[in-house]
Amino acid sequence: MADQKQGFDTLQVHAGTEPDSATGARQVPIYQTTSFVFKDAEHAARLFNLEEVGYIYSRLTNPTVMALANRIAALEGGQGAVCCSSGHAAQIMALFPLMAPGRNVVASTRLYGGTLTQFSQTFKRFGWSAKFVDFDDLDAVRAAVDDDTRAIFCEAIANPGGVITDLDAIGEIAKKVGVPLIVDNTASTPYLCRPIEHGATLVVHSTTKYLTGNGTVTGGCVVDSGTFDWAASDKFPSLSQPEPAYHGKVFTEVFGPMAYTFHSIAVGLRDLGMTMNPQAAHYTLLGIETLSLRMARHVQNAREVANWLEGDARVEGVTYAGLPSSPYYDRMTRICPRGAGALFTVALKGGYEACVAAVGRMELFSHVANLGDTRSLVIHPASTTHRQLTEAEQARAGVAPNAIRLSIGIEDVNDLISDLDQALG
Ligand SMILES: *Cc1c(COP(=O)(O)O)cnc(C)c1O
C-alpha cells in the first residue's frame, strides 16, 4: 500500500490499491457488479447507518471506483475523493454540500466554455448563481464576495488561453472570508500543480482529459483537502448541523476531516446519482499510471511548438505561459513549477477566416472538442466551445475571434511543427 510520503511516480502506480484480497490479482479488478452481499441484517444496518464503512450498492461506492478516488486523492495531497460520471458532474457534486437557493459562487471569467454555461444558465434552475470576475483583479474578487457566497471557483491553468491563476492570492482571500476555494485542476493535473498547497479546499477534475490521457472515457473527481473547518460558521449547515437528508446526522461531528467526502457519497451520490462506472474507473487507473511521463512530454512539446509559433511571421501572438515573454511566466514558476501545461491559444494575423482555413488544413492535429489527449488537438473556440457566449463574454474569457486553441500531444514535435507550418498556409 502506498502512503502519501512516497514520490509522485510511485503514488501514480500504487496509491489506493493493493493486491486483490480475494484473488491476489495484481492489477485492480473491474468489479462489474451493482450490489454487494451483506453478512447479515445487523451488518446491513451498520452500513446504512454509516457506522461501518463497506460496500452496499455501486451508485454509492464500488471497489474499482474507490481505488481510483483514493489514487487521485493521494496525488493531490487530499484526505478523500469522490469520482463522478463526468467533469461537469464533479462540479455540481463539489458545490452540492455547500449551496442552497439564494447562494452564489464567485467564479473566474476564464473557464472552460461548458463551465461558463453551466454556472451562468443551469445554476439558475437550482436557485444558485455565479458572479464572474477577472481573477487577476484581486480587489474585484474581494468585492464580489458577499454574505451569500459559499465558494470561490477557478481553474489553475485556465481555458482556453493557458493563463495561470494566482492560487496563493485567491486562496488568501478565500481564507479571510471563510469560504472554500475550489480549483479545477484539469488542464494542469497534480503533476504540474497541487492546488491544496496553494490554499484550495477542494480540487475538481475532468478525468476525461489528462488523467485518463487517451480519450476513451468521460469521468470526473472531487478531492477534499480535509482541512476546512465547516463548523466555524453557520454557512454550511449540511455539514455542520443535523442533516435532514441523512436522519439528522451531523457530518462534521461524526466524520471529522472526512465530513465533506462522506456527505458527498452518502447524500450526493445517493440522491444525484452522478456515479462513475467501474469500467471507466479501470481505463482511468490505467492512464494515471503514466501521468508524469506523459505530462513531461506534453510540456516539452508545448514549449517547442509555442516557441516556433511565436517566431512565425503569420502569427500575431501566442498565450503560452511557459514562454519567457508571457506576463504569466513568473507566476507559472511559483504555481506550476514543472511547466505551464500543453494548452494555449495562437492568434493569427489572417483573422477569423485564417483560423477556419488553418483548422481545415491540419492533418496530424484532430479538430475535436476535447483536450488533454495523447493526440494533438485543435479547435476554434469562437465558433465552437465558446459560441454560446456573447462577444463581450468571449473577450472576458480570453477567446479572440482570430485565435485557435491547441492541445499539444506527445507525438514527435517535428511532425507537429510541420503540420502547423503547412496548415498556416
Ligand atoms: C472538459 C473539462 C470540463 C468538463 O469535463 P467533462 O468530463 O467534459 O464533463 C471541466 N473543466 C475543464 C477545465 C475541462 O477541460
UniProtKB/TrEMBL annotation:
UniProt keyword Plastid, yes or no: no
InterPro entries: Cys/Met-Metab_PyrdxlP-dep_enz, OAc-hSer/O-AcSer_sulfhydrylase, PyrdxlP-dep_Trfase, PyrdxlP-dep_Trfase_major, PyrdxlP-dep_Trfase_small
Top-level taxon: Bacteria
Protein name as it appears in the record: O-acetylhomoserine aminocarboxypropyltransferase/cysteine synthase
Assigned protein family: Belongs to the trans-sulfuration enzymes family.
Organism, scientific name: Celeribacter arenosi
The keyword Kinase belongs to this UniProt entry's keyword annotation: no
Keyword entries, A-Z: Pyridoxal phosphate, Transferase
PANTHER family, alphabetized: HOMOCYSTEINE/CYSTEINE SYNTHASE, HOMOCYSTEINE_CYSTEINE SYNTHASE
Essential cofactor(s): pyridoxal 5'-phosphate
